[in-house]
Amino acid sequence: VFIAQSRASGSHRDLEDEELTRIFVMIPKTYTEEDLREKFKMYGDIEYCSIIKNKTTGESKGLGYVRYLKPSQAAQAIEECDRSYRAILAEPKNKSSESFEHDYYSNSVRPELRGNTLPFCMQPEFCSFEKAETRIQEPVSKRLSVVSRLPFIQEQLFALFDLVPGLEYCDVQRDPHTNSGYAVIQYSTAASAIYAKYKLHGFEYPPGNRLTVIFLEDGNDSSE
Question: Which residue spans traverse the membrane (predicted)?
Fold first, then answer.
């Protein structure tokens, strides 16, 4: 989707130069840059690898960057690497790394972990993201309704919402009388559903078709 959008905009060269070739991954703190390169070189030609370290102690934060020569290689790495790496496209370098790491931690929590740990790194479960909770005025739930002008393909919509950890099911429903798309999404926690709505409401998928994402009542106490 990102590659298609960049080409449609006519400025794909600049985007491909960074936004579409650099990925951000969660790794064991014991990994060196050579370990990182070894794990991801199977997906394409790597320009460089780097590991994010604590500025004071020099200890790895359990996060790293891998930059490929081609967007297709970065896309393949995100699609095919082990899910434990939580690979996503990295934000451009003009966004502060601390802000991006903060968002990433919020997005990368495994839903089955009910304590205060993340794989490979000890971080709080679901940090607040950009104080989004202060902007939410509607009742929240673990269930979302997704509507678009175009019909959905089950596998594609599932893959899109599965980028947020904790997806339990994605049910695409078809109306024989219209060509619009409608689906019900459910996550294991309300936090995951809030983050998915925050990130994907208004997202163009495919390019030019904006998604409308709202909460659906799931029968649970929304105050929780």
Answer: none
